[in-house]
Design a protein that fits this description.
Elements (H helix, E strand, L loop, with lengths): L3 E7 L23 H11 L4 E5 H10 L3 H6 L1 H9 L2 E4 L11 E4 L3 H10 L5 E4 L2 H9 L5 E6 L20 E8 L5 E7 L2
Parallel strand pairs: 1-5, 1-6, 2-3, 2-5, 3-4
Antiparallel strand pairs: 6-8, 7-8
Protein backbone atom coordinates (compact mmCIF):
# COMPACT_ATOMS: atom_id res chain seq x y z
CA UNK A 1 0.00 0.00 0.00
CA UNK A 2 1.26 3.49 -0.86
CA UNK A 3 2.27 5.69 2.04
CA UNK A 4 0.28 8.92 2.57
CA UNK A 5 1.95 11.84 4.31
CA UNK A 6 1.11 15.48 4.97
CA UNK A 7 3.48 18.44 4.72
CA UNK A 8 2.13 21.67 6.17
CA UNK A 9 3.55 24.92 7.44
CA UNK A 10 1.92 26.24 10.59
CA UNK A 11 2.25 29.20 12.94
CA UNK A 12 3.59 28.74 16.46
CA UNK A 13 -0.02 28.82 17.67
CA UNK A 14 -0.97 25.98 15.31
CA UNK A 15 -2.72 27.65 12.37
CA UNK A 16 -2.02 26.90 8.72
CA UNK A 17 -4.10 29.79 7.37
CA UNK A 18 -5.93 32.84 8.64
CA UNK A 19 -9.74 32.80 8.99
CA UNK A 20 -9.97 34.52 5.57
CA UNK A 21 -7.68 31.93 3.94
CA UNK A 22 -4.59 34.13 3.75
CA UNK A 23 -1.25 32.32 3.66
CA UNK A 24 0.97 35.27 2.70
CA UNK A 25 2.48 35.18 6.21
CA UNK A 26 4.29 31.99 5.16
CA UNK A 27 6.53 34.06 2.89
CA UNK A 28 7.19 37.06 5.14
CA UNK A 29 10.23 35.52 6.80
CA UNK A 30 13.63 35.83 5.14
CA UNK A 31 14.82 32.71 3.37
CA UNK A 32 18.49 33.65 3.63
CA UNK A 33 19.26 30.57 5.73
CA UNK A 34 21.37 28.41 3.39
CA UNK A 35 20.73 25.27 5.45
CA UNK A 36 16.98 25.86 5.16
CA UNK A 37 17.22 26.52 1.41
CA UNK A 38 18.97 23.17 0.98
CA UNK A 39 16.39 21.47 3.20
CA UNK A 40 13.62 22.87 0.94
CA UNK A 41 15.35 21.56 -2.20
CA UNK A 42 16.05 18.16 -0.62
CA UNK A 43 12.52 17.86 0.77
CA UNK A 44 11.01 18.48 -2.66
CA UNK A 45 13.25 15.85 -4.30
CA UNK A 46 12.45 12.17 -4.60
CA UNK A 47 9.59 10.32 -6.15
CA UNK A 48 6.13 11.01 -4.80
CA UNK A 49 2.73 12.12 -6.01
CA UNK A 50 0.83 15.11 -4.63
CA UNK A 51 -2.73 15.23 -3.32
CA UNK A 52 -4.63 18.50 -2.94
CA UNK A 53 -8.02 19.84 -2.06
CA UNK A 54 -9.41 22.21 -4.67
CA UNK A 55 -8.52 25.50 -2.95
CA UNK A 56 -4.89 24.57 -2.33
CA UNK A 57 -4.66 23.08 -5.81
CA UNK A 58 -5.83 26.33 -7.39
CA UNK A 59 -3.29 28.33 -5.37
CA UNK A 60 -0.48 25.95 -6.35
CA UNK A 61 -1.53 25.81 -10.02
CA UNK A 62 -1.54 29.60 -10.19
CA UNK A 63 2.08 29.82 -9.03
CA UNK A 64 4.28 26.79 -9.77
CA UNK A 65 3.92 26.71 -13.57
CA UNK A 66 4.87 30.43 -13.84
CA UNK A 67 8.20 31.99 -14.83
CA UNK A 68 8.29 33.71 -11.41
CA UNK A 69 8.28 30.31 -9.65
CA UNK A 70 10.97 28.97 -11.99
CA UNK A 71 13.13 32.01 -11.29
CA UNK A 72 12.68 32.12 -7.51
CA UNK A 73 12.61 28.37 -6.77
CA UNK A 74 13.98 26.60 -9.87
CA UNK A 75 14.51 23.11 -8.40
CA UNK A 76 11.24 23.08 -6.48
CA UNK A 77 9.22 24.46 -9.42
CA UNK A 78 10.58 21.75 -11.68
CA UNK A 79 9.61 19.05 -9.17
CA UNK A 80 6.15 20.52 -8.58
CA UNK A 81 5.38 20.68 -12.29
CA UNK A 82 6.66 17.20 -13.14
CA UNK A 83 5.07 15.25 -10.31
CA UNK A 84 1.80 13.34 -10.67
CA UNK A 85 -0.89 15.40 -8.96
CA UNK A 86 -4.36 14.51 -7.74
CA UNK A 87 -6.98 17.07 -6.80
CA UNK A 88 -10.12 16.09 -4.91
CA UNK A 89 -13.04 18.27 -5.99
CA UNK A 90 -16.72 17.98 -6.66
CA UNK A 91 -16.71 21.21 -8.73
CA UNK A 92 -13.49 21.10 -10.75
CA UNK A 93 -13.91 19.14 -13.97
CA UNK A 94 -10.51 19.46 -15.64
CA UNK A 95 -7.08 20.84 -14.98
CA UNK A 96 -4.62 22.81 -17.05
CA UNK A 97 -1.63 22.03 -14.81
CA UNK A 98 0.38 19.18 -16.28
CA UNK A 99 0.18 15.68 -14.79
CA UNK A 100 -3.02 16.38 -12.83
CA UNK A 101 -5.92 14.01 -12.31
CA UNK A 102 -9.22 15.29 -10.90
CA UNK A 103 -10.90 12.96 -8.39
CA UNK A 104 -14.59 13.80 -8.02
CA UNK A 105 -15.81 10.95 -5.83
CA UNK A 106 -15.94 10.51 -2.08
CA UNK A 107 -12.69 11.75 -0.48
CA UNK A 108 -12.08 8.74 1.75
CA UNK A 109 -12.95 6.19 -0.95
CA UNK A 110 -10.85 7.98 -3.59
CA UNK A 111 -7.90 8.15 -1.19
CA UNK A 112 -8.23 4.47 -0.27
CA UNK A 113 -8.14 3.63 -4.00
CA UNK A 114 -5.07 5.85 -4.52
CA UNK A 115 -3.25 4.22 -1.62
CA UNK A 116 -4.10 0.74 -2.92
CA UNK A 117 -2.66 1.46 -6.39
CA UNK A 118 0.93 0.66 -7.22
CA UNK A 119 3.01 3.80 -7.34
CA UNK A 120 5.04 6.37 -5.50
CA UNK A 121 4.13 7.58 -2.02
CA UNK A 122 1.62 10.43 -1.84
CA UNK A 123 2.04 13.76 -0.04
CA UNK A 124 -0.73 16.20 0.83
CA UNK A 125 0.32 19.86 0.73
CA UNK A 126 -1.89 22.39 2.51
CA UNK A 127 -5.45 21.22 2.02
CA UNK A 128 -6.58 21.32 5.63
CA UNK A 129 -10.13 20.32 4.77
CA UNK A 130 -8.94 16.98 3.43
CA UNK A 131 -6.18 16.51 6.02
CA UNK A 132 -8.72 16.59 8.83
CA UNK A 133 -11.07 14.13 7.15
CA UNK A 134 -8.32 11.71 6.12
CA UNK A 135 -6.72 11.89 9.57
CA UNK A 136 -10.06 11.01 11.17
CA UNK A 137 -10.39 8.08 8.72
CA UNK A 138 -6.95 6.80 9.78
CA UNK A 139 -5.47 7.10 6.28
CA UNK A 140 -2.49 9.39 7.00
CA UNK A 141 0.77 7.60 7.75
CA UNK A 142 2.97 10.60 8.56
CA UNK A 143 2.62 14.29 9.45
CA UNK A 144 5.45 16.64 8.47
CA UNK A 145 5.00 20.02 10.14
CA UNK A 146 7.16 23.09 9.55
CA UNK A 147 6.57 25.55 12.38
CA UNK A 148 7.02 29.15 11.28
CA UNK A 149 8.22 31.77 13.81
CA UNK A 150 4.97 33.76 13.83
CA UNK A 151 1.85 33.91 15.99
CA UNK A 152 -1.39 34.55 14.09
CA UNK A 153 -3.73 34.82 17.06
CA UNK A 154 -6.56 33.13 15.19
CA UNK A 155 -6.99 31.02 12.13
CA UNK A 156 -7.75 27.53 10.89
CA UNK A 157 -5.82 24.41 11.89
CA UNK A 158 -5.21 21.54 9.52
CA UNK A 159 -7.35 19.44 11.86
CA UNK A 160 -10.30 21.83 11.94
CA UNK A 161 -13.47 19.83 12.54
CA UNK A 162 -11.70 16.75 13.92
CA UNK A 163 -14.00 14.89 16.26
CA UNK A 164 -11.58 12.48 17.90
CA UNK A 165 -8.05 12.68 19.25
CA UNK A 166 -5.18 11.31 17.17
CA UNK A 167 -2.19 10.30 19.27
CA UNK A 168 1.12 10.89 17.54
CA UNK A 169 4.74 9.93 18.11
CA UNK A 170 7.58 12.31 17.19
CA UNK A 171 10.07 10.57 14.89
CA UNK A 172 12.22 13.49 13.72
CA UNK A 173 12.88 17.09 14.63
CA UNK A 174 15.16 19.74 13.15
CA UNK A 175 15.61 23.45 13.80
CA UNK A 176 17.02 26.15 11.55
CA UNK A 177 18.80 29.42 12.28
CA UNK A 178 15.91 31.33 10.67
CA UNK A 179 13.66 30.22 13.54
CA UNK A 180 11.76 27.56 11.62
CA UNK A 181 11.38 24.08 13.13
CA UNK A 182 10.56 20.86 11.25
CA UNK A 183 8.82 17.98 13.06
CA UNK A 184 7.73 14.59 11.78
CA UNK A 185 5.03 12.59 13.56
CA UNK A 186 3.42 9.21 12.96
CA UNK A 187 0.17 7.89 14.43
CA UNK A 188 0.66 5.77 17.54
CA UNK A 189 -0.71 2.29 17.08
Amino acid sequence: MRRLSVFNQISVDGYFRTPSGDISWLHQHPDDDEEFKQFTIDNSAGDYALLFGRKTYEQMASFWPTPAAAKRFPEVAQQMNQRPKFVVSKTLRKSEWQNTTVLSGDLVAETQRLKARTGDPITILGSGSIVSQLAQAGLIDEYQVLVMPVVLGKGVTMFDGAEKAINLALTKSRTFSNGKAFHVYVPRT
